[in-house]
Fold this sequence. Notes:
The chain is an alpha/beta fold.
Amino acid sequence: MVNEQLKINDVIEVLIKKIGINGEGIGYYHKLAVFVDNALPDEVVEVSIKEIFPTRIVAEIVNIKVSSPDRLEVKYPLYESCGAYNMQHLTYKRSLQLKRDILINSLNHYLDEKIVYAKIKQTVGMEQPLGYRNKVSLPARKIDGKNKFGLYAKGGNEFIPVNDTPVQHPRINEMIQALEVLMDTYKFHAYIQKDKSGYVKSVVIRRSDTTGETQVSFLLMEKFEDILTVSEKLVEQFPEIVSVFAFYTNEYKDQVFFSKDYEKILGKATINEKINGQTFSLYPESFFQLNTKMADIFYHKMKVLANLKKEDVVIDAYAGIAPISHYIAADVKKVYAIEIDQKSVQSAILSLKRNNITNVTVIQSDFTKALKNLEIDTVDAMFFDPPRTGLGYDTIKQVLKYKPKKLIYGSCNPSTLAKDLAILLQTYELKEIIPLDMFPYTPLVESVSLLVLR
């Protein structure tokens, strides 16, 4: 076998054929798949082998012999290594094409029957694909006596300082930089696990794209007596910060940004985001898409694909703060919005009331449990926007008991979408998939699918 003849650090030449789910190039060496970060389709690359498995090789580029015309110079190598901006090596136009390819490759991998490519539309992109992130969640570290915020390297725990990523809103970058200085000045240090010193484990900054209102949430390992002073100094520099929270934890290894133990330091409990002519009230923990402009397009596409009628009864599953319910409420008779997270439910109820929407019932529950307990005879349409894990067999089994006439599936993971479609397409016909670029300059692919009962 070929892989038995190869050794770590061997250099081989590979023609890159396609793009993988994580944005890596995939080629073949004597029928053995070769995965190469930052390689693009149609490139010929010399690569050094780093890992060898029975059916695949992981390698890294040594030399590009034939370069893609879409290749760009990497200007921010650190941000590429931490995944915050790791498709900066190709043109934006080409990245949109490749994201559709990532979706197609996933469908081909998991589905027995090939999807007609005409049903998979071109990727909807952004006019301005930089500065789109309205929310950042950053761990803190103390390096050479200075406080830094950053991210971890892909697939590891190496900390990479990041305080001005081009995909983050410029104002958020300014706030991160100012906060690092204030933390140094007031000795509000990042927590150091080995000597149990310092306070700050991480920070989350969320900025409303439409109102500019900003919320800052610290996660602390212990209380800091001057946190109000630091917060006030930050607000002096950035008056749009209208909400500051401190969350507390004693679990250093848990990769979380919020906890049940918290206090409001100053300002309001929520900030307001306006989208679709409606106002959404966001608590720190409430889930809301971090690219507001694309979120509006995403929800609008779901609504248009659904083609709802006034007498329809609809379920909005994995509802979050119920943006889908807000978008469709005026078009239907009744919506049941199902969400398990308490703060998202509180946001949903607050926002629905604020927008005078009365035909949406919010149910705080696990989705499958809620379905079992719902006392309705027919469901005309069911909307999904699940986490990256997708729906899965158990959830789909519950859905199929109701057999909604239409399913509108918003996905953030082509692999789990494809696995779910493998089950759903036994009962439903796929009419259309629209890929969307919710996260430019990353390999992540969002999509909206319409399925109709056979």
